[in-house]
Automatic annotation (TrEMBL):
PANTHER family linked to this entry: SOLUTE CARRIER FAMILY 25
InterPro entries according to UniProt: MCP, MCP_dom_sf, MCP_transmembrane
Family matches, as Pfam families: Mito_carr
Family note: Belongs to the mitochondrial carrier (TC 2.A.29) family.
Keywords per UniProt: Membrane, Mitochondrion, Mitochondrion inner membrane, Repeat, Transmembrane, Transmembrane helix, Transport
Name of protein: Mitochondrial thiamine pyrophosphate carrier 1
Subcellular location: Mitochondrion inner membrane
Species whose genome carries this gene: Coniella lustricola
GO cellular component, one term: mitochondrial inner membrane
Keyword set includes Mitochondrion: yes
Lineage: Eukaryota, Fungi, Dikarya, Ascomycota, Pezizomycotina
Stretches that traverse the bilayer: none
Solcar repeats: 34-122, 132-229, 238-327
Length: 338
């Protein structure tokens, strides 16, 4: 009886080697530690932290901005205006619109920081990690600012409406019987149905973009310059206190230079609301009428509470951004075998 030869182990077919799989946890850590992703997440955290810290001053700034001649219930000092807000609306008055603001600012800030990092790495750096000049930082930041505004503008205009609808402007007449005010989605749906559809949610975007682009560009440019200046020789990073100082300086410079655009943005966002005393036809018409009726200082209404809030706001924003970004980058797997 014929017998078949038994193959030696070395003669058996060998299956092709499979690359070792990456554990799911390592894949996630690798994803979130990518510079653009880490910047995106860090920007979201930075936005939520910074806006919540200064919510009362943010709302007061808006109330100052939207007042016109004859409707100046909040023509008060910052301290007295905050007291009036507290007496009439309590703690909720301080936080009015902050929920919507955080819903808006988390994606807004995330897109802003993430897109700045993306544009910087892929379009502006000649070599990876190269230092950008001031003009390139300004341009890159401006484009990032436009990107973030276009993505999140409807939430910004709704936040403005929510911020003013409970304030005691005599002619506003928006408080319904029973005292319950519409929320974020009800306000957005109402604007869509009664004020011109989708375009109503982007009313005022032109002066917004005109102000945000230079503001964000200046913010990034000044912060990175001041941060570098404050970094001790031989160190890679300044201390947390120095980062806070750099953020405060960058915010103050950027806000002061671009503040009139912010006033115009707020005015146009409520331009169709009854009882506010103005109906502007264009940016030129708005600026002409504001200066004629309210003087040049009309373009800077609300700048005092704005500057009071910008230091803690931008300082906490930049610090929380860098801490979150650096943490996410650090959690990346040290070595991934592909």
């Amino acid at each position: 009886m014929a017998t078949q030869a038994i193959k030696a182990p070395s003669d058996l077919p060998v299956a092709p080697a499979q690359p070792p799989s990456i554990p799911a946890t390592d894949s996630f850590r690798l994803f979130v530690s990518q510079p653009v992703v880490a910047a995106f997440c860090g920007g979201g955290v930075a936005g939520a932290v910074s806006r919540t810290v200064v919510s009362p001053l943010e709302r007061l700034k808006i109330l100052f901005q939207i007042q016109s001649v004859g409707r100046e219930e909040y023509k008060l000092s910052v301290g007295k205006a905050l007291k009036k807000m507290w007496q009439e609306e309590g703690w909720r008055g301080f936080m009015r619109g902050n929920g919507t603001n955080c819903v808006r600012i988390v994606p807004y800030s995330a897109v802003q920081f993430g897109s700045y990092n993306f544009y910087k790495r892929h379009f502006f750096e000649t070599t990876p990690g190269a230092d950008l000049g001031p003009l390139m930082r300004l341009t890159c930041g401006g484009i990032a600012g436009i990107t973030s505004v276009v993505c999140t503008y409807p939430l910004d205009i709704v936040r403005t409406r929510l911020s003013i609808q409970t304030a005691s402007f005599a002619d506003l007449g928006s408080r319904p019987k029973g005292g319950k005010m519409p929320g974020m989605w009800a306000t957005m749906v109402g604007m869509y149905k009664t004020e011109g559809g989708f375009l109503a949610l982007y009313r005022g975007i032109i002066p917004t973009v005109a102000g945000v682009a230079p503001y964000v560009g200046l913010n990034f440019m000044v912060y990175e310059h001041v941060r570098k200046t404050l970094t001790p020789e031989g160190d890679k990073n300044p201390s947390a206190v120095r980062k806070l100082l750099a953020g405060a300086i960058s915010g103050a410079v950027a806000q002061t230079c671009t503040y009139p655009f912010d006033v115009l943005r707020r005015r146009f966002q409520i331009n169709t609301m009854s009882g506010m005393g103005y109906k502007y036809k264009s940016i030129g018409d708005a600026m002409t009428r504001i200066v004629a009726q309210e003087g040049l200082k009309g373009l800077y209404k609300g700048i005092v509470p704005n500057l009071l809030k910008v230091a803690p706001s931008m300082a906490s924003s930049w610090l929380s951004f860098e801490m979150t970004r650096d943490f996410l980058i650090s959690v990346g797997p040290k070595e991934v075998v592909l």
